[in-house]
Amino acid sequence: MSITLLDGGMGQELISRAGKATGLWSVQALLDAPEIIRNVHDDYFAAGAEVATTNSYSVLPDRLIAHGIGDRLEELARLACQIAVDARDANGSGIVLGSLGPQGFSYQPDLSPPADEAAEAYASLARIHAEYVDAHICETMSSVDQARGGLMGAGVTGKPVWLALSVNDEDGTKLRSGEDLTDVLPLLEQYQPAGVLLNCSIPEAITQGLSVLAKQSIPFGGYANGFTKIVSDFSKIGATVDMLTARQDLGPDAYADFAAKWIAEGATLIGGCCEVGPAHIVELHKRFKGAE
Fold it and tell me: Against a cut of 0.90, is the pTM above it?
């Protein structure tokens, strides 16, 4: 069984290196210091990652309009993609995934527009991304309808689409919406994504949820975050990620121990999300790719 090693989180790495958190999240680096984004991609490839995920998670119409820069959407989307492509080309191998984050706000699917409306915005972005990326990835989709909108929109380009779902930290067999993870299975049948993952939830919850995905005939995996929990005030555009506290018990060894459980379930797509950095990817590569 061959493991595809994803990169780790981008946003928290950028904030750590820039020394500040703003309501624009990782978009701030596109505006102020794109060279830091390139450095993060380079560091993940050097750590052993086989994937560069574009820094476009928050390059969405609603996010940018709220900050008065909606007119820069295409410019910033292209810049995020180009930086990832340049890093991949410099590395000499790897694939580029075009990130499409949740509209409305992360972990708040009730704030997302209905699937048909969301799909229009995703389709416009996916067409831009498709000029650069190898595949699209709809990230942190937290309800069935949110996942449907992402799959509908990203699917217009004909490129492979990966779906990444965020599950409840208390019960990884449920989406953050409260819906059962099994409620997503008809979407997998309908849209046939190239891969399905659980992301941006604590690793314990992802371990629970992957037992559901393991029963499906589709490549699957996970990339967890390293937050202690998602606080209730972290619920609207403009909130900054410094409101969230990093765990102190999830170093590279501990994280790789969780990944080993996922691989034992049959997972082949493994990486990291927020607070999981290059050192974690080094350990994942050593344990799961070193013998290949």
Answer: yes
